[in-house]
Amino acid sequence: MFAPTLLATLDAVCETGSFDLAAARVGVTPSAVSQRMKALAEAAGGALFVRLGPAEPTALGRRLLRHAREMAALDAALAADLGQEGAPPALAIAINADSLETWAVPALAAVEGLRFDVVIDDQDHSADLLRRGEVSAAVTAQTRPLPGCDAYPLGALRYLAACSPGFRDRWFPDGPDAAALARAPTLRFNPKDALQTRWIRQVTGEAINPPAHSLPATSPLQAALRAGLAWGVNPEGLMRPDLEAGHLVELIPGATLETPLTWQVSRVMADVLAPLTRAMRRAARDGM
């Protein structure tokens, strides 16, 4: 339906961020790049970019970009089977920050012949990226296979709720009961992060939304807990060294939160991503 030259040019624009750099990559003039993007937009029936400088694709543009990269990956796989060499394609995959911080990176490093465009998104929402066609695979909390996808259980990532000793003494002098948890500030990755409210519901049976700071980075979030900014929920593997050193204390010792994770892969890309699927399952088994 879409000419390969148009898709390759879209990939170049998104990869380089500009029509000028894309033109140099694909070997045409910037005017030709503009004409190709106009033709692709007309064929697809919508705008491809939110803005230019750097180029930021629309939802339609991201869907076409995924298609372009999947086609390039399939071509590269065929070329490899035929003994031909070429530049590895980039494939968009979604992984939550805690998995990247604790176990997933070795899986990426174990795979040769592919480049990864990693989208960081909450495990409760990454399935939406697959549904919209913006990524080819995702680590997600969705256990049932999405339409057109294969699902592989990875195990459960274990979380602990903790804070600094000083924060505990200030906010939880009588323990973390429902009233105290409703007042004490917590720390979340971003507004999508529901781990704190899930933990509260698990230990109190109540739906409480405490005041929250947002800090979209796992390691700085851990540092903020040590500094006493708030209480928070982080993977046990990240919490344990600070707990053993006395920098943090558990709010309720032994009250862990288990988050099952699943690796979902588009069936169109299942063969190309098979080495990554094996590596992700192995890394999850060893790292979680």
UniProtKB/TrEMBL annotation:
Residue ranges occupied by any HTH lysR-type domain in the UniProt entry: 4-58
Similarity-based family: Belongs to the LysR transcriptional regulatory family.
Organism superkingdom: Bacteria
Protein name: Putative HTH-type transcriptional regulator
Pfam families, A to Z: HTH_1, LysR_substrate
SUPFAM superfamilies (alphabetical): Periplasmic binding protein-like II, Winged helix' DNA-binding domain
Molecular functions (GO terms): DNA binding; DNA-binding transcription factor activity
Gene3D superfamilies cross-referenced by the UniProt entry: 3.40.190.290, Winged helix-like DNA-binding domain superfamily/Winged helix DNA-binding domain (1.10.10.10)
Keyword terms: DNA-binding, Transcription, Transcription regulation
InterPro entries on file: ArgP, LTTR, LysR_HTH_N, LysR_subst-bd, WH-like_DNA-bd_sf, WH_DNA-bd_sf
